[in-house]
Input
Amino acid sequence: MLGGMYAYKMKKYKRSLKQLSSEIDRILHGDEELSPGNYEEGEISVLRDEIYKMTVRLREQSEKLAGDKEMLADSLADISHQIRTPLTTLNLMTARMMQEDDNPQQRKKMLREMNRMLERIDWLITALLKLSKLDADAVRLERRIIDLPVFLNQVLEPFAIQMELRGQTCSIEGAQGLTIYADETWTLEAIQNIVKNSLEYTPVEGKLLITCCDNPLYTEIAVSDEGPGISSEDLPHLFERFYRGKNASGTSFGIGLSLAQMIMNRQGGIICAENRKEQGSCFRVRFYKRDIGFDV
Output
């Protein structure tokens, strides 16, 4: 009697193993997925459930890798296009300068334009390297307490000459006495990219306004301009890599805002954009306090 029950259980056990082996083989060949709940309770059922979890996880990773591969292909195409445009311009200008009938004044003008193209290429390559480091998780952020008024003055320093030439002004409100907890170098990069974007849309003799506020949840830096604002179709895509809105300038690569968002996301912060009730747009950068264990 006992021998017969043992033989029956072993036969059932082997049949379950064979069925599970068959299903795993079909999965390896991409025919179907495991579906839970087809086995009775026991070791085989536990094993099958664990294999099911592993299969789901592997499929998720496979889908993510496929998506990353597609995004990489699109990014390479965009990068190629972005670099090719100024390079083509440089080639044309070089060919013109080799002509004997060019006068010195014309040569000087073309040299200035060539220098501008080289600066664009340099900025693009630098920004792409920074994006690559963030994508590869090769950046270690060193967060510390930063004095906000001093930090914002550093943000504006590179734009002083540009603003003076265009008659633009910038005022800072509400920063006195406030601090943020962030990586200074990378956060400087993020805020400068936002300011750069806002200045591009600020008209000649226009005004840029940086306002700061603080509450128990976060410290906020808001950058407001007097430009045309953000169109409704551009707003959802504003922080997508290589996205250029319909009002984008000819020098825009569609990288700066994407890089700024990545930097803030790595620090647990956010960037959001909106149109002002008056005129222009406003970018709000928030540094949350809930994960740092202190109030500033």
Remarks:
- Residues 43-97 form the longest helix (55 residues).
- The domain at 144-288 is CATH 3.30.565.10 (Heat Shock Protein 90).
- Confidence is low (pLDDT under 50) at residues 292-296.
- The first strand starts at residue 143 and ends at 147.
